[in-house]
Specification:
- There is one protein chain.
- About 25% of the residues lie in helices and about 20% in strands.
- The chain has 5 helices and 8 strands; from the N terminus they run E-E-E-E-H-E-H-E-E-H-E-H-H.
- Strands 1-2-4-3-5-6-7-8 form an 8-stranded mixed beta sheet, with helices on both faces.
- Helix 1 crosses helix 2.
- The longest helix has 14 residues, at about 85-95.
Length: about 210
Amino acid sequence: MKIIRKNGFNEVFPYIAYVPDKLSDSPALLIQLHGSAERGNGEDELDRVLIHGFPNTVNDNNLKDCVLVMPQCPEDTFWAAKIENVKSFTEQMMKKFSADENRIYLCGMSMGGYGTWHAAAEYPEMFAAIAPCCGGGEAQKASRITMPVWAFHGLEDKAVAPSRTIEMVEALKGVNPNVKCDLYEGVGHASWHRAFGEETLEWLLSKKKA
């Protein structure tokens, strides 16, 4: 697997990308948005984006025809305030990797979970599926989220209340038939350790826009 590093904020966001050795001419693209503790300067702090989530799961066998990209958010802001930038970054990565526009996925944890919900509501036409973990969104905009959703939250989360995920899932019922939610008993904020494993990766990569 090839690792690409783009330091600095000269482009939309600095990022690290995992690129499998075998790719088609039009691979899928998975964007992962990190939590607040992993924000950084895009230089010597860029490796923070690798601490949690799918970087600990993927390999050449399970990252099938897909590029995993992990941008870094600046320290003085948060993903939900940068939704237009997330869109621009995704478009930039689609172009860079000649990605299949019908196989673009978004996931995130904590601050990145919020970013995932918000981006899906603002740009539902962009994503084939999303996997928000221990975040929250705007329930009044849930009807815009038309792609398949797999949401996650620990029921003992003291940092972000489980109700933030539950209210989004409840708001989606009746308007989106492709929604499921895992609520983990006895698990606190770090529910991504269970959420972002091979099963979730396989589920995301199985989805394709009609």
